[in-house]
């Protein structure tokens, strides 16, 4: 699939607030607005993008380049009449899309939930139709006064424009269009109408403008530096993973998101953060072994917090990879085992060898079971295993990695590494039993799975 991105405007409201750069290159948590748009389109299945340039377009082209570094092809069109309106910018790219069945169209200053973008991309407009991403959650719109409003009946948009008084949705800045839109834009230009909304109103009157409901997905139009701050808040809000355990969800994320907001502006890679988390585990184990259990426990909890940052950075900056996921999992398993061994060394007093060995063995055996169960569940049934659906009592066992490292921290602070080993051993195997029972209820009858 191909996409058309409009990056031709001057960003007047940014400039009025003192911003001297080009708006599409405004940095938002480590990526420019345009980079975030291009990478979002790539995640939605787009392979080729045409960017329409206008105001200071050469700066944008020099920064973005050919798109090879992201695995997409980026071409450029220069619209010398960009100041007339965004409809003229869309029309200037006509030759690139005239033979396409359909294509995505969006602006460089919009940010969306990937689910919304994917949903619109999967729709198939008939020849002559255009789908408009429509948000019906009017109470959640950041700047309703500036939003392009839609009057929708069923799925057909009857009216579109910023000045509508009677409306029930707003345009979220992404469209699934057919080449017919260029005919309408050319017609609108002859009538002295230069904006995309004016052209789409003509299509609405023909009955060819359709609403694509984005449901509960989010989006934001970044028109001012203040809205950029709001966009950062939204991006960070939706970073936590649905598979988070109790400690990660209510404690760790409060700290990890702070670190992520700072680190996103640097060039650090998620894999480097995974390695830092592992090194913290090594340090914690070493301190436990020396008898400095409080310091060891604190390093273990810090490793747990940092362990959330790698995934947050990967999702935020589109750096997710199969290798990164594999490396993180391997380092986590080794980190857990080394911490448990360090606790055992700290718990040994010369007379309790058998007891320490017993709890050490059980804890080492149980520690990887949480990940193993979730990974096997995902591989077999193609779904994430979500700990939050297990219920509060299962969550309170703290058997996930965030919970285990929290237990290690408490054991260190209270100078009780042996008790910590015992708790890790008991809770990990008890949670494994609970999950086996829960999965058996979910599992199809014997013979349905190879």
From TrEMBL:
Sample GO molecular function, one term: nucleotidyltransferase activity
UniProt keyword annotations, A-Z: Membrane, Nucleotidyltransferase, Transferase, Transmembrane, Transmembrane helix
EC class of the enzyme, as a word: transferase
Domain of life, source organism: Bacteria
GO cellular component: membrane
Residue stretches making up the Nucleotidyl transferase domain: 2-234
InterPro entries: CDP-OH_P_trans (IPR000462), CDP-OH_PTrfase_TM_dom (IPR043130), CDP_ALCOHOL_P_TRANSF_CS (IPR048254), GlmU-like (IPR050065), NTP_transferase_dom (IPR005835), Nucleotide-diphossugar_trans (IPR029044)
Its EC number(s): 2.7.7.74, 2.7.8.34
Any one Pfam family match given in the protein's UniProt record, by short name: NTP_transferase
Transmembrane segments: 405-431
Catalysed transformations (reactions): 1D-myo-inositol 3-phosphate + CTP + H(+) = CDP-1L-myo-inositol + diphosphate; CDP-1L-myo-inositol + 1D-myo-inositol 3-phosphate = bis(1L-myo-inositol) 3,1'-phosphate 1-phosphate + CMP + H(+)
GO process terms (BP): phospholipid biosynthetic process
Family statement: In the N-terminal section; belongs to the MobA family.
Name the UniProt record assigns to this protein: Bifunctional IPC transferase and DIPP synthase
Organism the protein comes from: Thermosyntropha lipolytica DSM 11003
